[in-house]
């Protein structure tokens, strides 16, 4: 009986499931952090934007804040840790936040920043230079370390 059932399964052609007509692909949008930065940058409040106002702005933009509370909280904390946002009031993911002035100026004028010239190599003291020259010898022959130390001190005197 089981053999007949298995045989019937093997003879039935494989038919793929019809594609669901209501299926909609996920829309590609900005990440939570980018949405938060956008909302805070648009705010003209002197003391920054409170978390409640920030959540209202995200909800008005079509983001489901109630469903993604934890993501909003971690995004705020990470933006403060990176230095993109500055916390004006409160601690953690509560209080008020505004844009960091340093990142605003960098974002506005990236071409204004000039490449710095590499600093000139600092001159080593003669003792350090002699020790660096004799270092491979000291590593290859450990019993010769005292001889290397004596040689370094005699070169520097």
UniProtKB/TrEMBL annotation:
One cellular component term from this protein's GO annotations in UniProt: nucleus
Any Pfam family hit: Linker_histone
Compositional bias ranges of the Low complexity kind: 108-126
Superkingdom of origin: Eukaryota
Main location: nucleus
Keyword field contains Nucleus: yes
Name of the protein described by the UniProt record: Histone H1
Entry-linked InterPro entries: H1/H5, Histone_H1/H5_H15, WH-like_DNA-bd_sf, WH_DNA-bd_sf
Protein family: Belongs to the histone H1/H5 family.
Record's keyword annotation contains Nucleus: yes
Keywords: Acetylation, Chromosome, DNA-binding, Nucleus
A biological process term (GO) from this entry: negative regulation of DNA recombination
């Amino acid at each position: 009986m089981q053999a007949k059932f298995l045989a019937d399964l093997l003879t039935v052609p494989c038919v793929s499931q019809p594609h669901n007509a209501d299926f909609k692909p996920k829309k590609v949008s900005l990440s939570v952090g980018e949405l938060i930065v956008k909302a805070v940058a648009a705010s003209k409040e002197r003391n920054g934007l409170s978390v409640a106002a920030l959540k209202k702005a995200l909800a008005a933009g079509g983001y489901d804040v109630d469903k993604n509370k934890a993501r909003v909280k971690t995004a705020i904390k990470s933006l403060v840790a990176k230095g993109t946002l500055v916390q004006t009031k409160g601690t953690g993911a509560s209080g008020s936040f505004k844009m960091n002035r340093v990142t605003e100026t960098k974002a506005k004028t990236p071409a204004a920043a000039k490449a710095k010239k590499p600093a000139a190599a600092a001159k080593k003291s003669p003792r350090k230079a002699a020790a660096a020259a004799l270092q491979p010898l000291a590593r290859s022959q450990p019993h010769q370390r005292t001889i290397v130390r004596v040689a370094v001190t005699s070169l520097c005197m």
